[in-house]
Write a structure and sequence with these properties.
With 412 residues, this protein is of the alpha/beta class. The chain is 36% helix and 16% strand. The protein contains 17 helices and 16 strands. The strands form five sheets. A seven-stranded mixed sheet has the order 10-9-8-1-2-7-16, with helices on both faces. Strands 11-12-13 form a three-stranded antiparallel sheet, covered by helices on one side. β1, α1 and β2 (38-43) form a beta-alpha-beta unit. α1 (26-34) packs across α8 and α8 (178-201) crosses α9. The two termini are 26 Å apart.
Length: 412
């Protein structure tokens, strides 16, 4: 597909430096890389980002041929420098790189960042215009400001686990990385806003985002309604809720989801689509309030209707009458969903480890400044020499000395 940063991407010319691990922090700059930013990833020599070694979640494999798909996804587009920050020269290299960068992102805990002298207060001294993003588990203040956390804890603390599923179920987890990804999206949004503000004011600034804040914002209406109404978000109970905002199993075992609009003809059209026109004037269903009173029996009836025919038959019938309806896809089914493929929401690419693969695309279409299409994460330290020479301005002699002193690795 050629150079992933060729052309006229929205963030072409922006350079970012990352010191982080796993996904919530690194995923932020993967997104900016999608938009054309040059991203430099600082990794520990020999071992690198621990996500490189992530091969499974429980009994669910997340690696192909020994290579973590999660590492590849979180670090697409990046350049890797293997750098020992426990050595003073390692820190000085970072400071020099920071002076040549627009953005710095870390998701290490505040104590570690302070101990390594990588706080915003330290780095702004070498680059006053720096946009600095600190990603934490639960926020920078409060009793758990120093606590660590991963995606599952973001789902737990934000209330999300208690909002999904049905009322009689235990708290449920959404697989995989849902809150890590929304945190990365939130942080990337904030960084781009800060870049725009810097264009107008000349000011760099520090941004603070957390798994908790992002997960709560993802659930904006759940949280808003709970605060105003004084009630927790009710879990969806399929067999006792709005029959026309629900999902049903079809003859072939596949499911569909419907949401009937409030258009004056919508109820009539629905009755025609399911071949039960006698329901249109049934007093039990003359309005949505009446329908809700009889919801249990109506859902039970609709279960018998939908199970009688395959899903494609129902999808065609609803589409012909402009009734809002969708298949309930599995993640694998997305690759063959005609709407997904028509809009290039999944793209074909060639990967140096995995060969020809399909990957999720950037979700926004730009008419003039398209997102990048590549999907290649770096080998550990792959770009060390290039970064030190071309960005840091170090000589070959200095680079060789760093290598001999153990400050860097992978400089070959």
């Amino acid at each position: 597909m050629g150079d992933s940063h060729s052309g006229n991407q929205p963030l072409k010319g922006i350079r970012a430096l990352e010191w982080g691990a796993f996904h919530a922090g690194p995923g932020t700059l993967a997104i900016l890389g999608d938009l054309g930013a040059e991203v430099i990833k600082i990794e520990l020599p020999k071992t690198g980002d621990p996500i490189r070694m992530l091969l499974r979640f429980g009994n669910f494999p997340v690696a192909k041929d020994g290579h973590s798909t999660f590492y590849e996804g979180a670090n697409r587009h990046k350049k890797s420098i293997a750098l020992d920050l426990s050595k003073e020269e390692g820190k000085q290299i970072v400071y020099r790189l920071v002076s040549k960068c627009d953005i710095f992102v870390t998701n290490f805990r505040a104590k570690a960042v302070n101990d390594q002298r990588m706080t915003y207060a330290h780095l702004r001294k070498v680059n006053p215009g720096l946009i600095y993003a600190a990603v934490s588990a639960f926020g920078s203040r409060g009793p758990d400001s120093e606590a660590g956390g991963f995606d599952f804890l973001g789902q737990a603390r934000s209330g999300l686990m208690s909002a999904v599923g049905e009322p009689d179920m235990p708290p449920l987890i959404a697989q995989f990385g849902l809150i890590d990804q929304i945190t990365a999206i939130t942080a990337s949004h904030a960084i781009m806003t800060a870049l725009y503000a810097r264009e107008r004011t000349g000011l760099g600034q520090e941004l603070k985002v957390s798994l908790l804040s992002s997960a709560m914002f993802l659930q904006y209406f759940n949280v808003l309604n709970a605060l105003i109404m004084g009630q927790d978000a009710l879990r969806h109970q399929r067999k006792s809720t709005d029959p026309l905002r629900n999902y049903y199993r079809c003859q072939d075992g596949k499911w569909l989801c419907i949401t009937l609009s409030h258009h004056p003809t919508a109820w009539r059209d629905f009755c025609q689509a399911i071949d039960h026109t006698e329901l249109e004037h049934d007093p039990r269903f003359e309005n949505r309030d009446k329908m809700f009173e009889h919801r249990d029996e109506f859902i039970a009836f609709l279960d018998t209707v939908f199970i009688a025919k395959p899903r494609d038959r129902w999808l065609r019938a609803f589409s012909e009458r402009d009734i809002f309806c969708s298949p309930v896809n599995t993640t694998l089914e997305l690759a063959t969903d005609p709407q997904v493929t028509a809009n290039n929401y999944i793209i074909d690419t060639s990967h140096r480890l995995f060969g020809d693969i399909k990957v999720p695309a950037y979700p926004v279409e730009f008419s003039e400044t398209p997102a990048a299409l590549g999907f290649t994460a770096p080998r550990l330290g792959e770009h060390t020499t290039e970064i030190l020479r071309d960005i840091g301005g170090y000589s070959e002699t200095e680079i060789a000395r760093f290598q001999n002193d153990g400050v860097i690795d992978g400089a070959g």
